[in-house]
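Workshop exercise sheet. Pairs work together: one partner reads the sequence aloud, the other fills in the structure field after running the prediction. Swap roles for the next sheet.
Pair: D.N. / O.F.
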Amino acid sequence: MNISHTDFKLHEELREKARAITNFKMHRTVFFLANILIWLVSAFLFYAFKTTWMWAIFPTAIWGVILIFHYFWTFKWNKDRVEKEYQKLLKSLEKRQLNEQSAKLTDEATNQ
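Structure field:
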């Protein structure tokens, strides 16, 4: 199987995008599972020791803000930057391929 350099780059870009999406989904899952545990502990302490406030709101809120930023970074803000960089790399690759083809044609012309 012969994969061109352009195809290889495309596959690498897609793999990187899939990795970012998977990382976000894992972060989201850990957030929900950990916060369930945090709220269960907080509720237990609230009812068992008659504490006057639910402290779990603070780690949930802070972590939630971080998760929101992670979402925007993965799906919104980073998309344009990645696409611009990808187009730039694609143009430079095409230019290099054209240069290689013209050098090959020049070599063939001089060898005849």
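Discussion prompt: The chain has a mean pLDDT of 84. What would you look at next?
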